[in-house]
Records
---
Amino acid sequence: MLRLTPILLAIAYGLVMYHFSAWRTRRELDERSTELADPALKGVMDRLAAALELPRIRVNLYEVEPVNGLAAPDGRIFLTRGFYDRYRAGEVTGEELASVVAHELGHVALGHTRRRMIDFSGQNAVRTILASVLGRFLPGLGPWLAGVLTSLVVARISRGDEYEADAYAAALMVKAGFGTGPQKALLSKLEGLTGMAGRGAPAWLMSHPKTPDRIAAIEALEARWDEARG
């Protein structure tokens, strides 16, 4: 039983961190966001809602500068102030913003948002367990190796989620009559908008796939759809 104590403690820690992370995320979003009320964007979002047979899609404006979209564990969709400002400056079109919302809706529909909260809040628990086990065989290196392995696993899961959300968004954008053009156009300019252009990092260490790979995956979907239509 004593041998299992570190593992049980790590699991308990992970559960506590999950609930704390969910509470902290909800409070942060509640305090720093309001509904996005832009008449010019309403028609675009209404087309997405109609494609999903929903009366409306509420998009919230999160008052932070980084360019990003996100889906909360409770299913709410957010665009950051930085993203919205790029739209108002003419750097991003309404249809391109719609593709971001469609992507985040994909994370919600596919269950990524809740699972990610568990994944990320549980990282420390998994890292603790691995460090305890590996530390017995590799003293000194165990904790470091546990951290590397945990980060790699989480990054791989996250990249898989992004491909799935991209596929969902592509299908939704086509159904709404936008096509995948805005989605691919936004992906092409996203690194420039986020300030990541020119920063090379191995794809296997990134939480998002490389942009050319994401666009290629969307085009492969289109080819399959065209083939199915005959």
---
Amino acid sequence: MTDSRIARPRAVAKRIQQKIESGEIGTGSKLPSQRDLALEYGVSRASLREAITHLESTGLLHTEAGRGTFVRTTHPPQKPASSMDPLRQYSNLDLCQFRHMMEGQAARLAAMRIRDEDITTLERNLHVFRNQIRALDVHEASSTDLEFHNIIVRISGVQLFMDLHESFRSMLIQMIELPQKVYNRAWEPVIEHERILEALKRRDPDEARYYMQSHIVRSAERLGILLAGDVV
């Protein structure tokens, strides 16, 4: 029997894709708000966000921090079916260990390859992130948070890292989003992102890896997912 937690986002993603392919939603168009789409399809916002992040991983949609989600004007060719299903379920421990290893190395490489324009992009992302956290808009903040990590992975220049990170996007964003019980710790990720960015600005590979891995461990502990010893 198909797990409804997986089937529901799949069905929504398929319906949105059909609207785009039929021209009902034009290329370059901005999607309605997540609240409106969740009401339209009769699903929770969590399921709606998972459907959207799945479509982002296929290249059909892209989200701009502070602006919304848009249909891409050009779509990449469909990738062949793979055993690495973006909606496949992995444990939080699996995801944290994956991030600790891969994103730590990505940050190290990014520190050696980062350009001034990349720093500007990360600073812009951090500015948006701060404002969203101040407003306790954790839904939008989680997308901005993940985009900060995506940018660093892209800067690393390793295509396999980029593909893997995108493959797990929907699960990562669910794990990143702060539950209400820890809203009082919402500013901690901002400070941790600031430290990562400062290390990247200094072009210090070891420091960038250290602060990235520290951030991932602290995130896991903050959300009560696991202890630091379980990750490292």
